Amino acid sequence: MSYVRCQRCGRPACPECQRPAAVGVQCVDCVREAARRAPRVRTALGGSLTDGRPVVTLTIVAVCVASWLLQLATGGAWTSLWDFWPGGGLQEPWRFLTAAFLHSTSPLHILFNMYALWITGSFLEPLLGRARFATLCGLAAVGGSVGVLLLSGEPVLTAQGWVWGPSVVGASGMVFGLFGAMLPVLNRLGRSGGQVLVLLGVNFAIGFLVPGISWQAHLGGLITGAAVAAAFAYAPRSLRPVTAWLVPVAGAVLLVLAAAWKYSSVGML
After folding, report:
1. Burial environment of residue 178 by CB neighbours within 10 A (0 to 12, 13 to 18, 19 or more)
2. Who's near 132: CB < 8 A, 6+ residues apart?
3. Residues 97, 159: one domain?
4. pLDDT by residue (tens digit) across 97-150?
5. I want to staple 173 with a disulfide (CB 3.0 to 4.6 A). Which of 17, 50, 127, 217 is the partner?
6. Cβ of 78: how many Cβ atoms within 10 Å?
7. Residue 42's beta-bridge partner residues?
8. Helix, strand, or coil here: 168?
């Protein structure tokens, strides 16, 4: 029988249920209730303060690496299931998102994208919170594919039928979206985004100079990411919960409308 009582509720607490407090001890029930009632600590942009691990960023990296290994192991069969090209996006719309988790067989492609994702994600995810950061990544990835769709001209009739390409893979659209997101976030925090602008300019120029790089996906992801982050960063404190729901819905609707307009303009919808 325990003769030690909880300092909050006064009930006896056995040694296994005692928790040290500022004065005396508390029972586990009172400690749990105090933790539930404690105000949640928020970052400057309204994200919930966590243990610092960028869980969403690490998850995306893990999915991309696993997907890349499957690409190598299946000899391209895995790639053909999830890559994006304008002609395939209408019938299989999941490709707008899934192409961001694929990469070319060159290790440099995935290494560069994952490093950039880690750098930007480690900065943005703690500030925005996991849910809003996941929204940013998803919309930027889709925005990259929509950029490819909008800027890819029109279908071409060949002897084999209608062809509308090119096929694209890679997290570059998402990564450019995260770099674009850093600009309004840094501005909101009163910090300079000059280095980010230089980095964006150099990498965007590479997309025009090096063959095989989709500058269309970079541009689409950049615009989408900057717009989503601006909405999150500049939302009034009282409207942040509403914005957290409104932005993904409004962003998805706008991207769907943009894609539908393009497909309609070429007679496919």
Report:
1. buried
2. 46, 47, 232, 244, 247
3. yes
4. 999 999 999 999 999 999 999 999 999 999 999 999 999 999 999 999 999 999
5. 217
6. 17
7. 48
8. strand
